[in-house]
Amino acid sequence: MKPKPLSSKRSDTLFSLLLDLPAFLLLLSFIVVPIVDSVIKSFQAYGVKNIITKKPGVWNDFANYLYLFKTDDFVGATLHTFSFVIGVVLVQFLLAILLALILNSNIRGARFMRSVMMTPWVVPTVISALIWMWLFQPQYGLLKYLVSLVTFGHLSDFAILNNPSTALTGVGVAALWKQIPLMTLLLLAGLQNVPQDISEAAMIDGAGKIRRFFSIILPYLSPVIKVSVSMSIIENFKQFPLFWTMTGGGPNNSTTTLAVLSYREAFVGMNLGSGAAITTLWMLMMIAVIFGYNKLFRVQEM
Amino acid sequence: MKTTMKSDSKLFSFFKYAALAVILLFLLFPLYWVLITAFKTNMEAYRYPPTFFPRHPVLTSFLSLFHENNQFFVYYKNNIIVSSFVALLCCVVAIFSGYSLARFRHRWNTWFFALLLASQMFPVISRMISLYSIMGKLGIINTLGGLSLALLAAQAPFCIILMSSFFAGIPKEIEEAAYVDGAGRWRILFSIVTPLVKSGLVAVGIYAFLMTWDDYLHAATLIQADMKRTLSVGIALRYLGELSYDWSLVNTISIVGTIPVVLLFFFFQKYMIKGLVAGAVKG
Amino acid sequence: MKKLLAMLLVVLVTTSILFAAGAAEKTVATEKPVTLKVANYALLESGYEQFWKNVKVGFEAQNPNITIEWVTAPYGEIVNQVVNMAGGGDKVDVIFGEIDWVPGLVDTGLAAPIRDILPPEFVNDFYPDVLKSFEVNGQPYGIPLYVSPYVLYYNKDLFKQAGLDPNTPPKTYTEMLSYAEKLSKLKDANGNKVYAFGQTTASVPVSGASLNAMVFNFGGQVLDAQGKLSVDNQGFKDAISMVQLLDQKGYNPQNAKLKDLRNLFALGQLAMYYDQSWGFNGVKSINAKAVDFTASAEPLKGGSGSGESLLQAHCFILMDNGKARTAALSKFVQYVISTDVLNDYLRDLTPAYPAKNSMASMESVVNNGILKGASPAAGRVRVQTFIPQISTLNLELCSLAQAVTVGKQDVSSAIEKFKASATVKISQ
To answer: Which residues of A touch B217 (CB under 8 A)?
Structure first.
């Protein structure tokens, strides 16, 4: 082969498309087509019957969407989803950055601790749900015991997953447990990328700890924060196995998120059309959130 | 850095260690609790107040896992096969598309990148029914291969983006020089550029492995034969029955089901941490 | 380039191994032999696995040309699984499951009328009242292996400790409340609270069915004969008020699944609770000694009700896959629902009542100590009208129960909310 200049545009493009092809085909057949299909179904009367008889769904004048707003389930699920995402991401970020700063502060055994603390992250989600169900168990769970010990027996029936006002927090704790390690790791690595001389120079200037953090370290961290927070938003927005295993959406629907609602509608109620309507709106919300989030960051960077 | 240590006031330092202890306790104590429950009998596990160390440690649950409930190891094996396969293919796909995205800027790639970003946001649930009939038509339903492809599609977008951030960090001049020496495009990609992003590749592979190991919804829908089930589904199906809980066994399974990923992670953690971080920083 | 080739080779080899497994299995269908696909969640439940494995061995030995292929999924997923498979063109022949799964499967067009597949002399041996519970449009769409009302299990030891006669269980809700007052003062050996009365309210369809049974206890109804929501009756309101009262008094473990109740009961921390008769297998799997202190009684009477209950059944729901397979299926069903096969099962694993005449005098049923007390109730079950959205309705009932208990709402307004929401959902 004769050497030719790298910038021969057309062959570059062709080569690049060739490289994209396997991934593109994969995404097309396993993601794009099923998604488009589900959006189409959201406008149809489409039940399990249609799958079996192979009859196509029939257009039903937005009935699936109208149905969602006839009860307060959908609005409730949206609220639960957003409170879960906001709560978990916020607390996760605060704890992770705290832990990262501590581990970065030259304490003894930091490397070892960094490795060990990653363990929850590799525990499969279903298993972490089980672990927390066991800790939260309302009759003989460890948490019940600890709470009654700490409150000197005043609160002796602590059952976080059984109370509609705390159940979402309970699932959130399990989510935090599994997710804090990764975010800490990313932030920690970001911290280690902060050039030492800059940080030290600031110290000679007499910049206080807190000021140093906000004016020097934080800007350096900003790209890592952006990525890790957006990963966390997406993951929690999509969270399903934790809810399904731990609460099934109860008590009194207080942990029914969009994921639980759509699964229940489509696979328990066997109404795929309205299930698809939920997932469609859910996707739109997620895209809007991520879009808005990126905008926010862009504004900050300017 | 020594000076920093000295400048820490006692109170600050106390606060620091207290916070560290609390967070680490939160992250690690549940694992200890699972570990000791696995060694308790069911009757002791249900004791209240709970015992912080098994009074009569027994191996009943472990033995029953090996003798009676050994179907578990079929799930285990399948999970290893599927996760390895996905990890391997994910690396290949990520090299291809990651390189393409990092090197060639054209209209199509902008769209392709948008597609990758968007496809991470689609809930798995909305894909499941259509996926089932599509895979049925392709004749790959209820096969580990079919499951792997579906999972590969789910993991690929993140891996590609991660990989492309590594490729983006390789100066173009290296490739130009190779071109002048007469190397073809494929050779440049595989024998010159790819070796430079080895650590990223390991990170991508392990990430894909871990995420596949974690899968529940795909396997629950796309696999029917018990002999082909993977771990999460197997556990949920077989050991979380409607009839009753066997908490000792569940805790034993949690331990055994987590060990390989923990080992894998610790063995490769250097690459993994470097890779994920580099990806996140540059992405 | 070499590396690339090597890599491709590895991928190719792994791929072919992975897909080969799938391909090899498809080349089974030759001339005569028939393969029956039996969807059965119970194979995943440790208590039942051995029984079903023996069924396969025994049946295949009798019918060498028929092979049983199990299709398994967890209890909560198996209906989806069967439906998904059918959507992909792969229909199972029979699903082992609950009576409540019948309307949904009929609605999807999967379930076939049993009279189309099973011989009349076999079907006619079943109690007509029981078969009625399986009817959609006048045709039964499922055949029960055995049946059970909701049974009141109680702990004789705890009764004794509370100074109550272990041989006279409560008959009405009022009696139960006075018993409960004494029972709730007890502590177990470790000083833990003893719950007096368990009624499941967690968000799973079977809890809804159990609540529905409680409404029947009070002489109320949830659906009318036409399948329309009908909850403006005293019995319904009484039942929901009772659920609230049980919670306020701290008698009922909050938000519990049936398996949570079984756990507590097995450990001696729950004095009385409602369960399907076979729930006892779950109790026993936790504490084998539970046999000594467990007794059963009829469901309680409440208000103006006569203590009627809801029929629960484990049944086969059949599907039509052409002549050869339905013929084999008919043999399979007749093989399983027989004294020979079910005798040990009903004695050791699943206390329940037979559903047909020729099994009435089975040794395991006649001598079942656990079920003796509840026996009269088996004749007082009420048929629930089938609607395709029965699972959704049951989940709504759970939400209602949670609203008046952990949600702290008052009964009337919670019922109004339930009505609004359930009406929309079952008209979907």
So the answer is: 240-241
Each residue's pLDDT tens digit, C85-126: 887 778 999 999 999 899 889 988 899 999 999 999 999 999
Tell whether B106 lies on the interface with A, counting CB pairs under 8 A. Answer: yes
C-alpha distance from residue C90 to each of A268, C95, C109, C194, C322 (Å): 20, 13, 14, 49, 13
**Residue type (1 letter), C174:** T
CA–CA gap between residue C143 and residue C134 (Å, rounded) = 8
- CATH number (domain holding residue A51): 1.10.3720.10
CATH 1.10.3720.10 corresponds to the domain B69-279: yes
CB of B34 within 8 Å of a chain C CB? The answer is no
- Strand order of the β-sheet with C312-318 is C66-71, C34-40, C94-98, C312-318, C143-148
- Identify which of B49, B120, B176 has the shortest CB distance to residue A6: B176
Per the structure, the complete domain to which residue A89 belongs is given by 46-301
Residue of C nearest to B41 (CA): C286
Distance (Å, rounded) from C-alpha B230 to C-alpha A4? 50
In the stretch 194-223 of chain B, residues with CB closer than 8 A to chain C read 220-221
A168 in a domain, yes or no? yes
Q: Name the pairing type of β-strands C143-148 and C150-155.
A: unpaired
Instruction: Name the residue with tokens 């968000």.
Output: C203
What integer is the mean pLDDT of C163-187? 93
Confidence of residue C19 (pLDDT cuts 50, 70, 90): low
At A222 the pLDDT is 84
CA separation for the pair C289, A131 (Å, rounded): 28
Enter the ipTM: 0.86
Whether residue A124 and residue B257 make contact (CB cut-off 8 A), yes or no, is yes
Q: Does A50 touch chain B (CB under 8 A)?
A: no
- The answer to whether position A97 is within a domain reads yes
A41 domain-assigned? no
Q: Are B224 and C72 within 8 A, CB to CB?
A: yes
What is the domain partition of chain B in residue ranges? 2-38, 69-279
Strand partners, C313: C147
Query: Are B127 and A38 an interchain contact pair (Cβ–Cβ within 8 Å)?
Result: yes
* Separation CA C76–CA C338 (nearest Å): 27
